[in-house]
């Protein structure tokens, strides 16, 4: 199994830390497992720890005033969740539910506070990374407000495909979401998302295959910027 320090090195929040700092964070972690369906935390709960996903998948969501669950994203192996409440001392900003059986590493807020007190430069790194995440969130809101559905879907798929190997202009993307979950994330209904997938396929930007997609990142990028369609 991949050491936690190596997994942290791939996460934006910890990548800028020195190997020694990442090893110090990893030394604080405790391993735990939960079956599918477990509610790991709910919006408004105190942020007592942050979690790194070792195996499985977690859905982050919020409830609308009408009681509809809106999926924000899914966190898979290597993903970090719950860091905002741990770092700012505020309540959880979303619900986290295990979609599958999950294995997690947990780092307690009190332990992380002591590490930051001993290594104050770590706090500066965290501030820089969280500011970058805020910029990303602003861009996502802009995407929902200003772009056609096909462009929003193309941007979503490009985000999932980021870092995948590309051969002959194509990348194989395993989709961990169903269309209803994608619809919640990009602000649309499931039937409209289905039509948007069909339009991307007709444009040659994707090819639907069992278990996922064959993506053509160049064509997806053109759709995402409104240059096609």
From TrEMBL:
Annotated Gene3D superfamilies: Jelly Rolls, Winged helix-like DNA-binding domain superfamily/Winged helix DNA-binding domain
Domain HTH crp-type span(s) in chain numbering: 147-219
Domain of life according to the entry: Bacteria
Keyword Ligase: no
One Gene Ontology term, aspect cellular component: cytosol
UniProt keyword list: DNA-binding, Transcription, Transcription regulation
Signal peptide feature range: none
Keyword rRNA-binding (UniProt): no
SMART domains named among the record's database cross-references: cNMP (SM00100), HTH_CRP (SM00419)
Name assigned to this protein: CRP-like cAMP-binding protein
